[in-house]
Amino acid sequence: MNEKISDVKTNATKKGLIVRLIKDGTVIDHIPPGKGIKIAELLNLFNQDSVVIIGQNLESTKYGKKDIIKVENRFLKSEEYNKISLIAPYATINIIKNYVIQEKKKVVIPDVLEDVALCNNANCISNKEPVPSRLYVLNKNPLTVVCYYCGYEFSGENIKLKT
Amino acid sequence: MKERFVKRDIISIKDFTREELDFIIKTAEKIEKEGYNRNLLNGKCIGLLFYEPSTRTRLSFDTAAQLLGATTIWFAGIEGTSVMKGETLKDTIETVANYVDLIVLRHPYDGAARWAADITTNRMKRGHKKVPVVNGGDGKNEHPTQAMLDLYSIKKTQNRIDDLDIAIVGDLKYGRTVHSLAYALALYNCKIRFVAPEILQIPEHIEAYLKRRNVKFLKYSKIEEVISDVDIIYMTRIQKERFPDENEYNKVRGIFKLNRNILSKAKTTMRILHPLPRVDEISVDVDEDIRAYYFEQAGNGVPVRMALLSLILGDE
Questions:
Q1: Which one, of B313, B184, B292, lies nearest residue B232 by Cα?
Q2: For position A70, which CATH number holds?
Q3: Fold of B144-299
Q4: How many domains does chain A contain in total?
Q5: Residues A108, A114, A120, A122: what is their CA dihedral angle, to the nearest 10 degrees?
Q6: Is B23 strand, coil or helix?
Q7: Domain ranges within chain B, ordered by starting residue
Q8: Which stretch of DSSP H or E encloses residue A72?
Q9: Hey, is B119 helix, strand or coil?
Q10: Which of B19, B14, B48, B42 is nearest to B305 (CA)?
């Protein structure tokens, strides 16, 4: 945290960063390749004035390839962490203040998804009337959920998030 | 045990323990054998909100309530209600909860009863009395009070529920009575045989539920494969109204027919159950056979629903 801004910029150049640093905002790292755009859409990042940088298929020492999102002047709400966890369970959220990482958080799939995702049963009351959805997570890896209302169990692979 | 039922919502069989189901059965047996208090529910009013057609569930709840001294208000079908004007389930429940002490709800959407119960619970948090909700069938999901009377019928005919070999035949995909019965039988030590064409077999999520509980079950496509082995054959109607496409329905209509010829291979102690209504899956000439139990089964709806209403409202 005591790093000088000039050092941060120099180190970034040495590391060969192919996208620019952001001054204040959020970096979402370790997104599975190909899912970056989906997360950007989910967070409604395309409808704002700030800088948004999406890197696709970048090299990752941990996962081989990854996507990354950098967004300036935007900080995430807790329900947005939950949404990201369903698409990118291993994502890391870096909060940047004055070019320096202030906080690094891992997303965690919550035990209950309150009004975050839709039940996959088209005939469920939560898809038919104005009812807040509620899904209980039965298993985190692979993700399996069950609807609180209709008891329908389904795989997280097919989960549709509420927009 | 009694205290567990006071003001309780009855939404899914999965919410019950075996001890609780046994207690309901025992209470129904007591009502049938020893009689009941005709004034137990004096001054209580039961709301029967039936968004879908019903004969047995609605009339047996109505009978049960009146025998215990309660009055009933009801609608059967949404014609003539504000649902026709686009009223949501929430608004209807919020309104009717002012008039009644308990709501029995039948609704076309899966999970509607759970949502209705949440609405009356939230209402209680705002200072009103809790109005328990009883699921009288929600879409293709569950019909828990039918499963309770099915268990009661199995116990009455076979003197036990454990160690039985039970075939469930017909529309296992859309049949809500089948789903609730499968969840109920998962609490007993019996063998279940699901008999259906591939496209109407028991849903994957129910299969997964049974596997997690180590329930013994097998899948078949013909009645003839199981008829000589089973103690109970539970026939069901193909649920035409829940098929997304009529062509799909036409592929399976009339696929199963239990007739005297097939029945001749069954044990004499075997009993035929059916939640009714029947279309053509049981020949009418089977009705006279000693093994046909479905009309008596429908009659068992009254003591079982009396037991439930007594337990939920009787000890307030």
A1: B292
A2: 3.30.70.140
A3: Rossmann fold (3.40.50)
A4: 2
A5: -170
A6: helix
A7: 2-140+301-313, 144-299
A8: strand A64-72
A9: helix
A10: B48
The whole-angstrom separation of Cα A83 and Cα B38 is 55
For residue A94, what are the β-bridge partners?
Answer: A27, A104
Amino acid at position B181, single letter? L
Predicted pLDDT of residue A13: 53
Tell me which chain B residues have a C-beta less than 8 angstroms from the C-beta of A150.
110-111, 114, 138-139, 141
User: Chain B contact for A133, CB < 8 A?
Assistant: no
Helix or strand (DSSP H, E) at B49? strand B45-50
Distance CA B47, CA B103 (A): 5
Which residues, listed in sequence order, are joined to residue A154 by a DSSP beta bridge? A145
The ipTM estimated for the assembled molecules is: 0.90
> Which of A126, A130, A151 is facing B141, going by the closest CB pair?
A151
| Identity of the residue numbered A78 | S
Mutate to test the interface with A, among B11, B110, B210 (most CBs of A within 10 A): B110
Give the rounded distance of the alpha carbon of A80 from its chain centre.
7
- What is the helix (H) or strand (E) element at residue B65, kind and residue range? helix B56-67
A62 pLDDT band, cuts 50/70/90, is: confident
Tokens describing residue B183: 């969840």
In A73-155, the DSSP E strands lie at: 92-97, 100-106, 112-114, 117-118, 134-140, 143-147, 153-155
pTM of the model: 0.85
Residues in chain B within 8 Å Cβ distance of A145: none
